[in-house]
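User: Is it possible to get a 3D structure for a protein together with its bound compound? The compound here is zinc ion. I've pasted both below.
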Amino acid sequence: MKHLRRLCLWLFLAFPEAWAAQPNVTCSFTIPADWVQNICGQDVKVQALAGPNTDLHEFQPGPATARAILSADLIVGIDPLLEPWLNELIISNNLSGKVIWLGKPWISDGDDPKSASHACGSCKTDPHIWTDPVLVQLMVEKLAAACAQLDGVDPTKLAKQKDAYLQSIQELHRRLSTEFSKIPAARRIVVTHHNNFSRFAERYGIKVAGVILESATTEAADPSAKHLAALIQRVRSEHVSLIICDRGERAPAAELLARETGLPPPLSINLDSLDKPGTRGDTWLGMMNEIATTLITPWKELR
Ligand SMILES: [Zn+2]
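Assistant: Yes, that's possible. Here is the predicted structure of the complex:
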C-alpha cells in the first residue's frame, strides 16, 4: 500500500498534466478544430466530426458522431444553417448549453440587405466565413472566451497562445492584402463552382462575376443550359480570367465553361475543409496561403 502511494505521488510529480482532466472539445469540422488546437494546445482533447477533405455540406453523422457529441464538454460549430445535422443532434440530445456557434452574427443573425444577392437556399449570405481573416480573428476571440471556462484549461497560457495565434492571422492578412493589391484589378475577376468564395473575394478585392452551381452548397444540381449560356456571356463581357473549382469535386460544367470561353482549365482550391495531415493545407493558415498562391501565380503570369 505504501509502495502504491509512493508510486502515485511519483507519477503525479512526473506527469502532473496526466492527472488534470483534459476537457473534450468537439468541433463540426477541421477548421474550427485547428483554431482550438492553436489556442488551447495540450490542455484539451480536440476532435473534428467531419475530418480532413470531407465535404461539410454532404457530411452524414453516424453513431460515432453522436458519441463524440455526448462526451463533449464544449461543442463548436459555425452556424445552424451551415451544419444543420449538428443542430439537430444538439436539440435532440438537449445539449444547447454546451454549444458555441462562432459565425451566427454573420450568417443566421446577419441582416445585411446587400447580401441578398448571395441568396443560397437557407443562408442569406455566403456561409464560408472562415475565408475572411478579419472575421476569423473575431471568431477566435469568441472561441477563446468559451475555452477559458473549461475545467483543466489554464487561462493564462490560453491568453498567451491566443495572442500569438491572432498575431499570425494579422501577419497573414497583411501579406495577402499586399500581394493581391499588386495584381491589376482588371485581372482579379473569377467565376466559382459553388458560392463559397465571396467572403475571401470581398476582403481582397476580387470580383466574383458568376457562380456555376446556383447554391451555397455542393449538393445543387448541375446548372441548366440557360444558366451556363448566361455564364459564357458573362465570362466574355466581364473579362473573367480564372475559373475556380472545389478540390475533389467533379465539375464538368466548369470544364465546359473553360473550353467554350478559351480560359485555362479550372483551378482547384480547397476551402471547405483542411487537407490531410502532412500537407501544406493541413492548417487554416496553410490553407489560406495555398488559396492565395493558387490565384496569384497565374495572375502574375498574365499579360
Ligand atoms: Zn462549401
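The chain has a mean pLDDT of 88. Residues 82 and 236 are 33 Å apart (CA to CA).
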